[in-house]
Amino acid sequence: MPRRSTPDAAIGQRIRDRRKLLKLTVRVVADLAGIHHSTLSRIERGEISADNRFTLASIAQGLRCPVTDLTGQPAAPVDHGDAQVSGSVYETLRAVIEADLQYRPAQADALPITALTHELDLIRDLRARCDYAGATTRIPSLLRGLHLAAYGSERAEALRALVIAEDTASFVVRYAGNPAAACLVADRAQQAAEALDQPVMLGLAAFARSHAATGCGLYERALTIADHAARDLEAHTNLPDGREMLGQLYMTQAYALYALGRAEDAMEPVALAERIAADTGDSDALRLMFGPTNINFWRIAMEADGDSPGRAVEIARGTTPHAVDSISRQFAFYSDTGRALARTGRDAEALRMLLAADRLAPQRMRNPIMVETVRSLLERSRRGTGWTELRGLCERLGIGS
Length: 401
Prior knowledge:
Blueprint (H helix, E strand, L loop, with lengths): L10 H11 L4 H8 L3 H9 L7 H10 L4 H5 L8 H19 L14 H16 L3 H18 L5 H21 L3 H18 L2 H17 L3 H15 L8 H18 L3 H18 L11 H14 L3 H9 L9 H17 L3 H14 L1 H4 L2 H13 L6 H11 L4
C-alpha cells in the first residue's frame, strides 16, 4: 500500500506518493504534465530541486490535484508562533466571509473612516515588511469595521478602503501559507470594487484575483482575469493611479503567458508595461511599486522558473533592488535571483542571495519553494566556503542534514 507523505516531506516525495496512490507510472504523469519522464523521475528522487513554480503547476495538473497538495500547504503548526499565525489567518478568513456586502451587518457604531484608513495604512506597512503575523492579527477587525462603514454616510470611501484591505489580506493570507484561501479573499475585493464601480479599483481587485490564481498554479485563469481587466482599464489611464495599475496588469499577463510556455507572446505586455514605466518611473501609487525596477523583478521571476535562469541572473546584475521601498519586493528579487543562480550551478552566489532574502523576511523564507531550493543546495554542498552559513539557514528552515 502506498505510504502517506509525512508533514515535513520534500516536494519530490509528495509527488511520488501521490502518483503511487493514483497507480500511475512516471511516464504517464510526465506525459500529462508535458515534461520528460526522466525529469519527473529525477524530481521524485530529489536529484532535481522541486522549486520550479511552472513545473510544479504542470505536475499538479497531471496528478489532478492542487499545487498545495504537493507543497504541503497550509502546514500544520509546529510551535507557538506557527499556531498564533494559523489562528490569525483563520480569524481573517472568518472576517472575510462575514464581510459580505450582500448582507447588512448588525447595527453598531462605525468608526470614522479616517481611523479605519489609518489602520489600513499600518497593515499595508506590515505587508510591505513581510510581517504577516502582525498583519493577520489586525486585518479581521479592520474588515469588519469597513463592512459596517460601507452602509454609512461614507460609503464610497469605505468601499475603496475595503478593496485595498481585501487585496492586502489576499496577499498576506497567500504568503502566510494559504494560497488557495487567498482566492476567496480576492473575490471579496471584486465584490467591493463592483459595488464602488470605479475603474482603478476594479483593476486592483482583478490584480488581486489574478495574483491569487498564480499562487495556486492556475495561470490560464490568471491570464483571463488580467486580460479582461487590462482592456477595461485602458480607456481610463487619465484617472489617478490608472497608468500604474494598468502596468501591473500587463506584467501579470506577461507572467501568466510565460508560465504557460508562451514566452514570445509575453514580450508584448512587457513592452506595453515598459512604455508606461518610462513615464511613471518607480512609483508608489497604490503601493504597487510599479516602475522599471519592479518590471525587472517580474522578469527575473519569469526567467528563474522558465528556460533561461542565466538570463534572470543577467537582469539581476543590472537591477538595484533597494530602488523600490518594499521589503516584500526586495525579498522577491533576492529569492528569485538565488533560485536562478542555484539552477545555473552557482551555489555559493545563490547562498549569498538566499541569506539576504532570509535576513529581510524570515517568515516568507519558510515558503515550501524556498525550502526546496535550500534543500537542494544542502544536498549538493561540501564542507567548504559557506558551509556554516548554509547549515544555519537549513536549521532555521527546519531542514535536516
